[in-house]
Design a protein that fits this description.
The protein is an alpha/beta fold and 268 residues long. Helix content is 33%, strand content 23%.
Length: 268
Amino acid sequence: MLSTGAIPVAAQAVSTPNFWDQRQRLSKPVLAPRERIRFLTSTDYPPFNFLDARGRLGGFNVDLARAICEELDIVDRCQIEARPFAELVPLLEKGDAEAVIAGIGISPESRRRLAFTESYLRYPARFVTRKDAPLTEPLEPALSGRKIGTVDGSAHAAMLGAFFPNVQRVGFADRSTALTALRNGAVDAVFGDGIDLSFWLESEAANGCCAFSGGPYLSDRFLGEGLAIAFARKDVDLARAFDYALGQIVAKGTFSELLLRYFPVSAY
Protein backbone atom coordinates (compact mmCIF):
# COMPACT_ATOMS: atom_id res chain seq x y z
CA MET A 1 0.00 0.00 0.00
CA LEU A 2 1.33 3.40 -0.93
CA SER A 3 0.45 6.90 0.12
CA THR A 4 0.86 9.17 -2.90
CA GLY A 5 2.12 12.72 -2.93
CA ALA A 6 -0.08 15.38 -4.45
CA ILE A 7 0.39 18.58 -6.37
CA PRO A 8 -0.92 21.55 -4.33
CA VAL A 9 -3.08 23.97 -6.29
CA ALA A 10 -2.93 27.05 -4.11
CA ALA A 11 -5.64 29.11 -5.78
CA GLN A 12 -8.29 26.47 -5.11
CA ALA A 13 -6.72 25.03 -1.92
CA VAL A 14 -7.24 21.59 -3.43
CA SER A 15 -4.62 18.90 -3.94
CA THR A 16 -4.46 17.00 -7.21
CA PRO A 17 -2.40 13.87 -7.80
CA ASN A 18 0.22 13.16 -10.41
CA PHE A 19 0.46 9.49 -11.34
CA TRP A 20 2.59 10.16 -14.39
CA ASP A 21 6.32 9.50 -14.36
CA GLN A 22 7.74 12.76 -15.72
CA ARG A 23 11.09 11.05 -16.29
CA GLN A 24 9.59 9.33 -19.32
CA ARG A 25 10.80 10.88 -22.55
CA LEU A 26 8.41 10.00 -25.35
CA SER A 27 8.62 11.50 -28.83
CA LYS A 28 5.57 13.21 -30.28
CA PRO A 29 3.90 10.63 -32.54
CA VAL A 30 2.84 11.15 -36.12
CA LEU A 31 -0.78 10.09 -36.70
CA ALA A 32 -1.16 11.50 -40.21
CA PRO A 33 -2.01 8.13 -41.83
CA ARG A 34 -5.07 7.71 -39.58
CA GLU A 35 -8.21 9.16 -41.09
CA ARG A 36 -10.10 9.22 -37.79
CA ILE A 37 -9.83 8.30 -34.11
CA ARG A 38 -13.11 7.04 -32.68
CA PHE A 39 -13.52 7.01 -28.91
CA LEU A 40 -16.25 5.00 -27.22
CA THR A 41 -17.51 5.70 -23.71
CA SER A 42 -20.64 5.10 -21.66
CA THR A 43 -23.12 7.43 -19.96
CA ASP A 44 -23.65 5.73 -16.61
CA TYR A 45 -20.55 6.58 -14.58
CA PRO A 46 -20.73 10.20 -13.40
CA PRO A 47 -18.66 12.29 -13.06
CA PHE A 48 -16.48 10.35 -15.52
CA ASN A 49 -19.08 9.82 -18.27
CA PHE A 50 -22.68 11.09 -18.29
CA LEU A 51 -25.37 12.93 -20.22
CA ASP A 52 -26.06 16.46 -18.97
CA ALA A 53 -29.47 18.10 -18.58
CA ARG A 54 -29.52 18.85 -22.32
CA GLY A 55 -28.62 15.31 -23.27
CA ARG A 56 -25.04 16.19 -24.21
CA LEU A 57 -22.19 13.83 -23.50
CA GLY A 58 -19.86 15.10 -20.79
CA GLY A 59 -17.62 14.11 -17.92
CA PHE A 60 -14.00 13.87 -16.88
CA ASN A 61 -13.18 11.09 -19.36
CA VAL A 62 -14.89 12.92 -22.21
CA ASP A 63 -12.95 16.12 -21.59
CA LEU A 64 -9.75 14.11 -21.22
CA ALA A 65 -10.35 12.51 -24.63
CA ARG A 66 -10.80 15.96 -26.13
CA ALA A 67 -7.59 17.17 -24.48
CA ILE A 68 -5.72 14.18 -25.96
CA CYS A 69 -7.01 15.02 -29.41
CA GLU A 70 -5.89 18.63 -29.01
CA GLU A 71 -2.44 17.57 -27.81
CA LEU A 72 -2.00 15.25 -30.81
CA ASP A 73 -3.37 17.84 -33.28
CA ILE A 74 -6.14 15.50 -34.45
CA VAL A 75 -9.24 17.36 -33.24
CA ASP A 76 -10.73 17.32 -36.74
CA ARG A 77 -10.38 13.53 -36.84
CA CYS A 78 -11.62 12.70 -33.33
CA GLN A 79 -15.10 11.35 -32.63
CA ILE A 80 -16.56 10.51 -29.22
CA GLU A 81 -19.62 8.27 -29.05
CA ALA A 82 -21.56 6.83 -26.11
CA ARG A 83 -22.70 3.21 -26.12
CA PRO A 84 -23.87 0.78 -23.42
CA PHE A 85 -20.91 -0.37 -21.37
CA ALA A 86 -21.35 -4.04 -22.28
CA GLU A 87 -20.93 -3.20 -25.97
CA LEU A 88 -17.69 -1.22 -25.69
CA VAL A 89 -15.05 -3.96 -25.84
CA PRO A 90 -16.85 -6.04 -28.50
CA LEU A 91 -17.14 -2.95 -30.72
CA LEU A 92 -13.47 -2.13 -30.15
CA GLU A 93 -12.40 -5.65 -31.07
CA LYS A 94 -14.59 -5.58 -34.20
CA GLY A 95 -12.79 -2.45 -35.39
CA ASP A 96 -15.77 -0.12 -34.90
CA ALA A 97 -13.66 2.16 -32.69
CA GLU A 98 -10.04 2.90 -31.96
CA ALA A 99 -10.22 3.59 -28.21
CA VAL A 100 -12.45 3.06 -25.19
CA ILE A 101 -12.30 5.56 -22.34
CA ALA A 102 -14.78 4.20 -19.83
CA GLY A 103 -13.08 2.42 -16.95
CA ILE A 104 -12.38 -0.95 -18.58
CA GLY A 105 -10.85 -3.08 -15.84
CA ILE A 106 -7.14 -3.84 -16.16
CA SER A 107 -6.37 -7.48 -15.40
CA PRO A 108 -4.19 -10.26 -16.80
CA GLU A 109 -7.17 -11.43 -18.84
CA SER A 110 -8.00 -8.00 -20.27
CA ARG A 111 -4.32 -7.42 -21.08
CA ARG A 112 -4.36 -10.58 -23.19
CA ARG A 113 -7.22 -9.13 -25.24
CA LEU A 114 -6.49 -5.40 -25.23
CA ALA A 115 -3.72 -2.82 -25.19
CA PHE A 116 -3.80 -0.02 -22.60
CA THR A 117 -2.20 3.33 -21.95
CA GLU A 118 -0.42 3.82 -18.67
CA SER A 119 -2.90 4.39 -15.84
CA TYR A 120 -3.90 8.05 -15.66
CA LEU A 121 -5.91 7.86 -12.42
CA ARG A 122 -5.78 5.55 -9.43
CA TYR A 123 -8.59 4.85 -6.99
CA PRO A 124 -7.52 5.98 -3.51
CA ALA A 125 -8.77 4.47 -0.28
CA ARG A 126 -9.46 6.99 2.48
CA PHE A 127 -10.57 7.21 6.08
CA VAL A 128 -13.39 9.61 6.89
CA THR A 129 -13.91 10.77 10.46
CA ARG A 130 -16.10 13.24 12.27
CA LYS A 131 -14.61 16.72 12.28
CA ASP A 132 -14.70 16.78 16.07
CA ALA A 133 -12.66 13.55 16.30
CA PRO A 134 -10.01 13.51 13.55
CA LEU A 135 -7.21 10.95 13.33
CA THR A 136 -3.67 12.27 13.29
CA GLU A 137 -0.55 11.02 11.51
CA PRO A 138 1.18 8.67 11.92
CA LEU A 139 -2.10 6.89 11.41
CA GLU A 140 -1.22 3.32 12.41
CA PRO A 141 -0.78 4.01 16.14
CA ALA A 142 -3.70 6.46 16.07
CA LEU A 143 -5.96 3.70 14.72
CA SER A 144 -4.98 1.03 17.23
CA GLY A 145 -8.09 -0.28 18.95
CA ARG A 146 -10.40 2.13 17.11
CA LYS A 147 -13.70 0.97 15.60
CA ILE A 148 -13.43 1.30 11.81
CA GLY A 149 -16.41 0.70 9.56
CA THR A 150 -16.20 -0.94 6.14
CA VAL A 151 -18.62 -2.60 3.76
CA ASP A 152 -18.72 -6.37 4.31
CA GLY A 153 -16.95 -8.33 1.60
CA SER A 154 -15.47 -5.25 -0.09
CA ALA A 155 -11.92 -4.76 -1.29
CA HIS A 156 -11.58 -1.99 1.29
CA ALA A 157 -12.51 -4.36 4.11
CA ALA A 158 -9.78 -6.75 2.98
CA MET A 159 -7.29 -3.91 2.56
CA LEU A 160 -8.03 -2.57 6.05
CA GLY A 161 -7.46 -6.00 7.59
CA ALA A 162 -4.19 -6.50 5.73
CA PHE A 163 -2.59 -3.15 6.47
CA PHE A 164 -4.20 -2.04 9.72
CA PRO A 165 -4.58 -5.29 11.67
CA ASN A 166 -4.81 -3.59 15.07
CA VAL A 167 -8.14 -1.86 14.43
CA GLN A 168 -11.55 -3.14 15.46
CA ARG A 169 -13.20 -3.83 12.12
CA VAL A 170 -16.95 -3.26 12.03
CA GLY A 171 -18.74 -4.59 8.96
CA PHE A 172 -21.85 -3.05 7.41
CA ALA A 173 -24.15 -4.17 4.62
CA ASP A 174 -23.59 -1.00 2.57
CA ARG A 175 -21.84 2.34 2.52
CA SER A 176 -24.88 4.34 3.66
CA THR A 177 -25.29 2.29 6.84
CA ALA A 178 -21.59 2.60 7.64
CA LEU A 179 -21.63 6.37 7.22
CA THR A 180 -24.75 6.71 9.35
CA ALA A 181 -22.91 4.82 12.08
CA LEU A 182 -20.03 7.27 11.73
CA ARG A 183 -22.29 10.28 12.09
CA ASN A 184 -23.94 8.71 15.14
CA GLY A 185 -20.61 7.93 16.79
CA ALA A 186 -20.96 4.14 16.61
CA VAL A 187 -17.62 3.90 14.77
CA ASP A 188 -14.56 6.14 14.85
CA ALA A 189 -14.00 6.15 11.09
CA VAL A 190 -15.13 4.61 7.83
CA PHE A 191 -12.61 3.25 5.33
CA GLY A 192 -13.68 3.20 1.68
CA ASP A 193 -13.34 4.54 -1.84
CA GLY A 194 -11.93 8.06 -1.68
CA ILE A 195 -13.65 9.30 -4.83
CA ASP A 196 -17.06 8.10 -3.67
CA LEU A 197 -16.47 9.49 -0.18
CA SER A 198 -15.36 12.88 -1.54
CA PHE A 199 -18.83 13.40 -3.00
CA TRP A 200 -20.51 12.19 0.18
CA LEU A 201 -18.59 14.76 2.22
CA GLU A 202 -20.24 17.54 0.19
CA SER A 203 -23.70 15.97 0.25
CA GLU A 204 -26.76 16.82 2.33
CA ALA A 205 -26.48 13.38 3.93
CA ALA A 206 -23.11 14.32 5.45
CA ASN A 207 -24.36 17.77 6.51
CA GLY A 208 -20.81 18.98 7.06
CA CYS A 209 -20.15 16.41 9.76
CA CYS A 210 -16.98 14.81 8.52
CA ALA A 211 -13.64 15.07 6.74
CA PHE A 212 -10.82 12.91 5.46
CA SER A 213 -8.15 11.78 7.91
CA GLY A 214 -4.81 10.41 6.73
CA GLY A 215 -4.05 8.95 3.34
CA PRO A 216 -4.63 8.67 0.49
CA TYR A 217 -3.76 4.97 0.20
CA LEU A 218 -3.20 3.10 -3.04
CA SER A 219 -2.87 -0.62 -3.66
CA ASP A 220 -2.78 -2.47 -6.98
CA ARG A 221 -3.44 -5.70 -5.09
CA PHE A 222 -6.70 -4.57 -3.52
CA LEU A 223 -7.86 -1.65 -5.67
CA GLY A 224 -6.50 -2.49 -9.10
CA GLU A 225 -4.41 -0.46 -11.50
CA GLY A 226 -6.88 2.39 -11.91
CA LEU A 227 -8.15 4.00 -15.11
CA ALA A 228 -6.50 3.66 -18.51
CA ILE A 229 -7.62 3.96 -22.12
CA ALA A 230 -8.16 0.63 -23.91
CA PHE A 231 -7.32 -0.27 -27.51
CA ALA A 232 -7.46 -3.35 -29.71
CA ARG A 233 -4.49 -5.59 -28.96
CA LYS A 234 -2.93 -4.86 -32.35
CA ASP A 235 -3.05 -1.10 -31.75
CA VAL A 236 -0.16 -0.80 -29.30
CA ASP A 237 1.36 2.07 -31.32
CA LEU A 238 -1.77 4.17 -30.78
CA ALA A 239 -1.67 3.41 -27.06
CA ARG A 240 1.90 4.72 -26.90
CA ALA A 241 0.84 7.83 -28.85
CA PHE A 242 -1.82 8.47 -26.23
CA ASP A 243 0.78 7.92 -23.50
CA TYR A 244 2.74 10.82 -25.00
CA ALA A 245 -0.38 13.01 -24.99
CA LEU A 246 -1.27 12.10 -21.41
CA GLY A 247 2.25 12.98 -20.27
CA GLN A 248 1.97 16.40 -21.92
CA ILE A 249 -1.48 17.00 -20.43
CA VAL A 250 -0.12 16.28 -16.94
CA ALA A 251 3.02 18.41 -17.45
CA LYS A 252 1.02 21.42 -18.69
CA GLY A 253 -1.44 21.33 -15.78
CA THR A 254 -4.47 20.45 -17.90
CA PHE A 255 -5.00 17.21 -15.99
CA SER A 256 -5.14 19.06 -12.67
CA GLU A 257 -7.65 21.52 -14.15
CA LEU A 258 -9.92 18.65 -15.17
CA LEU A 259 -9.72 17.10 -11.72
CA LEU A 260 -10.65 20.41 -10.09
CA ARG A 261 -13.57 20.80 -12.49
CA TYR A 262 -15.13 17.43 -11.71
CA PHE A 263 -13.88 16.69 -8.18
CA PRO A 264 -14.17 19.89 -6.09
CA VAL A 265 -13.35 17.94 -2.91
CA SER A 266 -10.06 16.21 -3.62
CA ALA A 267 -10.04 12.45 -2.99
CA TYR A 268 -6.26 12.75 -2.64
